[in-house]
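Incident log, support desk, overnight shift.

02:14 A customer reports that sequence design results differ from what the structure should imply. Their input is reproduced verbatim below. On-call engineer (initials T.W.) acknowledged and began investigating.
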């Protein structure tokens, strides 16, 4: 957790917000494919529509929210998005797309999976490992490209 700092807890304790010392350069999609963060932002991220009195701040890829579901047993990590409500000039956080953790679903007979819930540091460590794997993949692609040319 040396790369991460806890900066806030909101939503009655269900959201823990963490800021990374350096921005995330790599994220993965739902299939586990690692990609550059900017590509993830265009291809994977759910684009929310905000009210006209909200200004969404640019994505910096350094802030995440670890969130506990309020309807069932599940914990996921999301890329955080910050926006300003211009009516009262207040800053707010929103979750975007799941970037770590396991979607467990919820039904009448299966209220999530408590065994899939890990400590926050596990999700943050996963994101740190993604940075290493993403860099390795990028270097491997460069090597292959240079050998083919």
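02:41 Re-run completed on a clean worker. Output:
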């Amino acid at each position: 957790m040396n790369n991460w700092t806890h900066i806030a807890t909101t939503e009655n304790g269900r959201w823990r917000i963490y800021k990374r010392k350096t921005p995330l350069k790599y994220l993965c999609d739902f299939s586990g494919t690692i990609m550059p963060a900017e590509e993830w932002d265009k291809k994977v991220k759910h684009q929310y529509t905000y009210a006209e009195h909200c200004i969404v701040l640019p994505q910096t890829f350094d802030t995440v929210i670890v969130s506990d579901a309020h309807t069932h047993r599940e914990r996921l990590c999301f890329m955080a998005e910050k926006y300003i409500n211009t009516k009262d000039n207040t800053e707010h956080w929103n979750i975007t797309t799941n970037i770590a953790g396991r979607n467990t679903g919820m039904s009448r007979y299966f209220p999530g999976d408590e065994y899939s819930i890990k400590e926050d540091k596990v999700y943050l460590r996963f994101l740190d490992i993604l940075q290493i794997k993403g860099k390795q993949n990028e270097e491997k692609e460069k090597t292959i490209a240079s050998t083919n040319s």
